[in-house]
Amino acid sequence: MSSDSRRELRLRIDSLAAGGDGVGRADGRVVFVPLGAPGDVVRVELVQERKSFARGRILSIETAGARRAPPCRFFERCGGCSWLHVPEAVQSAARREILIDALQRIGRWNDLPEVELLPSPLALGYRARARVAYARGQVGFRERGSHRVVPIDRCAVLDEPTQKQLEAVAAKVPAGSGEIAIRGFESSVDGLRVGDAAFFQANRSLWQFWVELVAECCGTGDLLLELFAGVGFYTRRLQSNFERIIAVEQARSARDLRVNTSAEVFESSVERFLTNYAFVPAPDVVLLNPPRVGCARGVLARVASHTPRRLVYVSCEPATLARDLLELSGSYRMRRLIAIDALPQTHHVEAIAVLESD
Q1: pLDDT tens for residues 112-139?
Q2: The model's pTM
Q3: Nearest Cα to 76, choosing from 88, 58, 98, 90?
Q4: Edge-to-edge strands of the sheet including 332-340?
Q5: Per CATH, which fold does 88-122+203-357 belong to?
Q6: Please, where are the H alpha helices in 184-317?
Q7: Residues 6 or more apart from 70 whose CB is under 8 A from it?
Q8: How far apart are CA 299 and CA 46, in angstroms?
Q9: Would you list the domain boundaries of the chain?
């Protein structure tokens, strides 16, 4: 669409979308509007039009809805945070709705329990790791909707140790351009060894609450099967709940897992493990914590074939959670559903689903 043919329209923002944009409707279509807030009445320029949806850019705000002054001077340009302009309570409500929508629309789960919430103790200054971009002697984050680097000297969501890492990179910018991981902890966290390439939850203020909640969801029993176990973030705590734990992880994190726990560690992909391992007896509980892409096709069906009484799925993407749970084919009922404010000021939604066999 050329700039000469772009249309302008008046629009009310009704909600926040999974990708972070505000959502309104006009001419029978959904219109996605970056930086919109629920209740806003805005004048927008349509920058993309399709048959079923359009995208717009705010030209002016006629009536402000549930918005606030962003607590960061870089927000308008920086693409790191998408919801700094709306209060935390509005963010939490949006995460609940995004989670429910994905499970009902994609997963066809119509009988959902009431969605609980695990709030973040800190809304700012909580993040213990991040990826920063660098180019042309500057360090920061990618510009919203662009690959350009916005120079950032202080990030509102980084905790102090990680902020110091940002400053260290900025003091000696790498040559060329690219991205670099920073984290505000060394090779161990509360006694857990965490290798340089290992994944670890970013929200320092939530670590203990998150682990205890997962332990509560798993309960107790004889045998726990933990898939995508990582460095043992949950495993170490769950050792006191179960007589035996089988933990599956591949690549470098498996080395940390062996050091951090007394679990029976299988260094394998989840798919290969489930194909080759025979459970006698069956696990009481299966805990899954896959990456954002979710599980490979067939994983949940194979897990269910071992008839565990409970499944606990820790998800960092509602859409893939909903897709994966389709494989259970009505053999399990969802008993608890918890939305997690894992990354305040962003549109990311993490969740825990607890399912039990009928």
Answers
A1: 999 999 999 999 999 999 999 999 999 9
A2: 0.95
A3: 58
A4: 115-118, 332-340, 350-357, 310-315, 285-288, 221-227, 242-249, 264-267
A5: Rossmann fold (3.40.50)
A6: 207-218, 235-238, 252-260, 270-276, 299-305
A7: 76, 84, 85
A8: 42
A9: 3-63, 88-122+203-357, 129-184
